[in-house]
Amino acid sequence: MGAFEALSGAKGLRVAGKSAQNIANFNAEVAKQEAEAIRKRAAFAQKRQAKRGVA
Prior knowledge:
With 55 residues, the protein is mainly alpha-helical. The chain has one helix and no strands. Helices cover 91% and strands 0% of the residues. It starts with a helix and ends with a helix.
């Protein structure tokens, strides 16, 4: 393996690592947003039930 192949391979691994990290970060952000949406829906449903007098 030549120097170019070694360097480009290492760069490819770094790029792949960054891509994997970006995907993981994106998935984590989506999960946080979904959790927040669930909390908001639950709070809204609870308020609606309280207005109706449903326990």
